[in-house]
Amino acid sequence: MGLKLLVTSDFHAKEDLKEGAIEEANSGDYDLYLNLGDFIDPDYAEELFDRIEIPGLGCTGNRDLFEDEEMIEKAPVFHFLEADVDDEYLVILIGGDFPDDIKEQVTEIIEEHGDSSKVIVGSHYPPLKLGDRIHSGDRIGFEQFRELILKQKPALWANGHVHEDFGERSLLGTTVLNAAGESTGKGYAVTIGDEGGVEEVEEVNLLDE
Description:
With 209 residues, the protein is α/β, with parallel strands linked by helices. It is built from five helices and twelve strands. The strands form two sheets. It has a six-stranded mixed beta sheet. Strands 5-6-7-8-10-9 form a six-stranded mixed beta sheet, with helices on one face. A hairpin with a 5-residue loop joins strand 5 (80-84) and strand 6. The N and C termini lie far apart (32 Å).
């Protein structure tokens, strides 16, 4: 059957994005909802996840760190999370505040899982040279995230944070998505196949046209 995800990020407490994500997630098309941070308001995050009818998980963003304790208490939002979706698929989330040895921890988790083609990684910050170019032209992605993609080859790596570099990329067979939605009003529908790997990626407009 595979696994279909709705992936979003960087709503910055915008009501129209929250309502659009809720409507899309509850359409009956998805198995799991992921939001990759910068909710900004704990009550906003709580309502978002409370109203979504499918399983949902999120990670903190850099702009959530002032409210992180309250947000983590109210919603399924984490700094760092390893979560089994079922017997086959694994989700790893890396928020705005993460351990110094993140590369080692994620490597151990993926290798213990045993099938990287059915691993989904979501981080608030982007990997280096993948959806990380800011207005100045500089790249601000994280080298250790890029190294994890190169060495572990998860099916999907999704992130937010850099609003101006929304889009889909690929690195050695791993699909890499920048799903930052504040400026674009968009997220992604992603299907992970029965045999692993990303089968389909589709941009999803969360706002009424």
